[in-house]
Amino acid sequence: MSPTPSSESHAPARTRPGRSPLHRMPAGIKLLVLAAAGTGLAFTTSLWVLGGALALTGAGYAIARQPVRRLFGVIRPMIWLLVPIFLVQGFMESWILAVAIVTRIITLVALAQLVTLTTPSDTMIAVITRALTPFRVFGVHPGKVALAISLALRFLPVIGGLAQEVRDAQRARGLGHNPLALALPLLIRTLRMAGDVTDAIEARSGGDDDEDAAPARTPVPVTPRAGSAAASSPAPAPRSS
Amino acid sequence: MKHTVVRTKDIVLIALFAALMAALALFPPITIPALGVPITAQSMGVMLSGAILGAKRGGLSILLFLLLVAIGLPLLSGGRGGLGVFFGPTAGFMFGWVLGAVLIGYLHERAWATIEPFKSFLYCFLGGIVVVYAIGIPWASVNTGVSLVKVAVGSLAFIPGDMLKAGLTALAVVAIRKAFPAMHQPAA
Amino acid sequence: MTTIEVTDVVKRFESFEALKGVSVTLAEKRIGVVGSNGSGKSTFARLLNGLVLPTRGSVVVDGLDTAKAGKAIRRRVGFVFQNPDNQIVFPVVEEDVAFGLKGLKLPRDERESLVDTVLSRYGLEHLRQQPAHTLSGGQKQLLAIAGALITNPACVVFDEPTTLLDLRNARMIARTIREMEQTVIVVTHDLALLNEFDRVLVFDEGRILVDDAPSAALARYVERMQ
Ligand SMILES: Nc1ncnc2c1ncn2[C@@H]1O[C@H](COP(=O)(O)OP(=O)(O)OP(=O)(O)O)[C@@H](O)[C@H]1O
Ligand SMILES: [Mg+2]
C-alpha cells in the first residue's frame, strides 16, 4: 500500500462539483439540522422514527446526487463494531432494539457524512471561524484559528512527505520496522521546521501582535525620524470607531 | 491565567503537530497475531503532542486535527474523515484524545526538567489510556446501548497496543528533551 | 536606498557566541556574504530584519532600531530563506502570496492587483490556484520571493536562496536576484552568484574577516579555505 495517493488527497479540497439544493443550502443550517438530528434521535428507539430518519437521509443522498457508495468508506471500518453490537443487543435485550440501535448509528453517520459531502472544506472553515467570533471574550482569536487551519492544510503534504522520506531512509538502513527510528527523526525535523516556519511568518507579517485589539493601524509607517517635532505626533487617529 | 495570548510559534507548533497526527496515519498498522487487533500509529500522536507541546498546545493540536477531520479531510487511519465519524460508536475515544493530550501535557510540563522514561510512560498511560478509555467507553455504551462492562471488556484487546505506544512515546520524549531542553519554557 | 548600521554586535546563544563583535554599515545595492558553515552568516542575516536581536550592540535600519521597531523594519527588509517549503505558509499559491498584506487592511481590489502584479512578475500567474506543494523547487523559491516582495520592501535579505535548487533553477533564481530593483543582501556558498556585486563580506568564526570588492574578497576567501 503506497501512501503517496493518500498524501496527495491531503491537499485542501477546494471545491466539490455539485449544484443540488443541498449543496446550495447554507452550511450553518446543515450543521444545525445535523445537531438537531443527533440530539433528537439519541432519545428514541422507535423503529418508525428511526426508519423515517434513515429514509429521509437516503432521500438526501438522492437529492444531492451522491452515490451511497461514498458512505461505505466511513461505515465499513465500523462493521466490526456494529455486528457485535447487533448480536449482543439481540440476544441480551431484543432484536427490535438491536435493529433500532444499529439504524440510529448508521443514520447519524450517514447524515453527518452527507453534510460533509455537500459542503466544500473552505465553506466549512469559514463557518467555523465565524462561529468562533463570540468566543473572543475567552481569548479565542478567530484570525489565529484561521491561520492555524491554513498552516495545517499547508503542512499536511509537507509532513506527509517528510514521513515518507524518513521511512525510506530508515528502510535503507534496515530500521524500517523500528518505530522509534521512524518517530524520532520525524519529530525532530518537525520541531526544527516549526522554528523556521515561525521565522518566516514573522519575517513576512511583521510578527506577533494583538491584531484586532488595536484599531486599524496605518500600513508601513517607516519614515525615518527626521525631526523631533514630526516624530512626536502620535499615530494618526483611526478613521472611525 | 491572564496570558491567554498565543504566540506565532505556538500556532505553528499546534498546526505542525496536527499535520503530524495525519502523517502518522500513513504508517501501516502493526498487527500482533495473538490479539488480532491492528495497532495504528495515530493514537501515539496524541501522546507525543501532549508530552512534547504541553497541555494547552498539545490539546489544541489534537482539537485542530479533529477539526480537519470534521471538515471532511480523510486523515484518520484508514483514510476516514468527515462529520460521520463523530457519530459512530468510537467517537468518544477521539474526544478523549483531546483531554488525554491535555493531561499528558500538564504532567510532562511539570516534570520536564527531570523527566525519565518510566515517569513519561506513567503519564502517557494516565492520559493516553485511562482518560481516553474513561471517555470512550461510556460514550460507546450510550451510543450503542451495550452495557458499560461489556464495552469495557471489548476494549481490553486494545490496551496492550496502547501500552506499547505509551512506552515508545516515553522513549521518544526523553530523547526529544535532550535535543530541545527548552520546549516547555515560556518565551523570553 | 536602505542603510543598515550594525554596531559592535555580539550574539550569544546560551553559552555559545555566534557573533563576536561585528560592526559594519551596509549601503550598497548588492552585498554578498560568504563564510564557512557555522561562521555566523545566517545569524548576521537574521539580525538585519530583527528576527534575531543582538545580545550586545545595535542594529539600526534607516534610523529604526531592530530591538524597538522590529515590525516596521520587517516591512522594510524582506527575507527569503533557504528552504521555500518552510516559508510558504498557505496551502494555495495566491493565498500565500497575499499573506504579507494581511495586517495592512488594504481594500480588496488593491490587494488583488498587488497579487496579480507580483505573480506575473515572477511568471507564476498560471499557478495561481495551485496547491503550493505541487510546485517544483524552482517555482517554490519564486513563490517565496514573490511572497517577500509583495509588501514592496526597500531591501531583501536572502539566506542561501539557491542551495537546494538544481543548476538550472539556481541560475534562474540568480538572474532574478540580479534583476531586482531593491537593495539586496545575499548569503551564499555559490561564489559565482556574487560576480557583479558591489561588496562582499567574508565571515569567519563570528567575525567579519574580509570586507572588499567581490574579486578581492572572494580571492582571499578561497585562499583561506585551502
Ligand atoms: N538558535 C540557536 N541556538 C543555538 N545556537 C545557534 C542558534 N542559531 C545558530 N546557532 C549557532 O551559531 C553558530 C552560527 O550559526 P549560523 O547559522 O549563523 O552559521 P552559518 O554561517 O549560517 O552556517 P551555514 O553555512 O551552515 O548556514 C553555529 O555554531 C550554530 O550552531
Ligand atoms: Mg546559514
UniProtKB/TrEMBL annotation, chain A:
Topological category with respect to the lipid bilayer: Multi-pass membrane protein
Compositional bias of kind Low complexity: 215-241
Keywords (A to Z) from UniProt: Membrane, Transmembrane, Transmembrane helix
Stated family: Belongs to the CbiQ family.
Transmembrane segments: 31-64, 70-88, 95-115
Pfam family, one: CbiQ
Chain intervals for the UniProt region annotation (Disordered): 1-22, 202-241
Annotated PANTHER family: PROTEIN ABCI12, CHLOROPLASTIC
Species this protein is from: Roseospira marina
Keyword Transmembrane helix attributed: yes
Coiled-coil features, chain-numbered ranges: none
Keyword Transmembrane helix part of the UniProt annotation: yes
Subcellular location: Membrane
One GO term describing the cellular component: plasma membrane
Descriptive protein name: Energy-coupling factor transporter transmembrane protein EcfT
UniProtKB/TrEMBL annotation, chain B:
Pfam families per the UniProt record, alphabetical: BioY
Keyword Cell membrane: yes
Subcellular localization, as worded in the UniProt entry: Cell membrane
Entry GO CC: plasma membrane
GO molecular function, one term: biotin transmembrane transporter activity
Topology versus the membrane: Multi-pass membrane protein
TM spans (from-to): 60-77, 83-108, 120-140, 152-176
Keywords from the named record: Cell membrane, Membrane, Transmembrane, Transmembrane helix, Transport
PANTHER family attached to this UniProt entry: BIOTIN TRANSPORTER BIOY (PTHR34295), BIOTIN TRANSPORTER BIOY-RELATED (PTHR34295:SF4)
Record-stated family: Belongs to the BioY family.
Protein name: Biotin transporter
Species the sequence originates in: Roseospira marina
Native organism taxonomy: Bacteria, Pseudomonadati, Pseudomonadota, Alphaproteobacteria, Rhodospirillales
From TrEMBL, chain C:
SUPFAM superfamilies hit by this protein: P-loop containing nucleoside triphosphate hydrolases
Highest taxon in the source lineage: Bacteria
GO terms under cellular component: ATP-binding cassette (ABC) transporter complex
SMART domains: AAA
MF terms in GO: ATP binding; ATP hydrolysis activity; ATPase-coupled transmembrane transporter activity
Gene3D superfamilies: P-loop containing nucleotide triphosphate hydrolases (3.40.50.300)
Residue ranges of every copy of the ABC transporter domain listed in the record: 4-222
Keyword hit for Nucleotide-binding: yes
UniProt family annotation: Belongs to the ABC transporter superfamily.
PANTHER family, sorted: ENERGY-COUPLING FACTOR TRANSPORTER ATP-BINDING PROTEIN ECFA1, HEAVY METAL TRANSPORTER
Descriptive protein name: ABC transporter ATP-binding protein
